[in-house]
Amino acid sequence: MQLLKFITGKKTYIIAGVIGLLGVLQGLDVLILPESAWLVLGAFGLGALRSGVNKVAATVKDVNKKY
Asked: How far apart are CA 38 and CA 17, in angstroms?
């Protein structure tokens, strides 16, 4: 439960960090990922980003109701 509280609002940054780290490891020929893995990681990143956009949109909608 504490882990979920910790990653709230940080999912996009975590995924971007993982993608960056994997890119460096692949560039150094330490780890070779198939092309499909990059597509999956990109999809996770876009999903996390979309979730953040929805949260901001809900906040803006609530603020507009007050005024």
From this structure: 13
Interval 11-53: pLDDT, tens: 888 889 999 999 999 999 999 989 999 999 999 989 888 888 8
3-state secondary structure string, 5-66?
HHHCCCHHHHHHHHHHHHHHHHHCCCCCCCHHHHHHHHHHHHHHHHHHHHHHHHHHHHHHHH
Q: CA dihedral in degrees (46, 8, 51, 66; nearest 10)?
A: -150
Whether pTM > 0.70 for this model: the answer is no
- Domain ranges for the chain, please list them: 2-66
> Can you list the pairs that 53-60 forms with residues at least 24 positions away whose Cβ atoms lie under 8 Å?
none
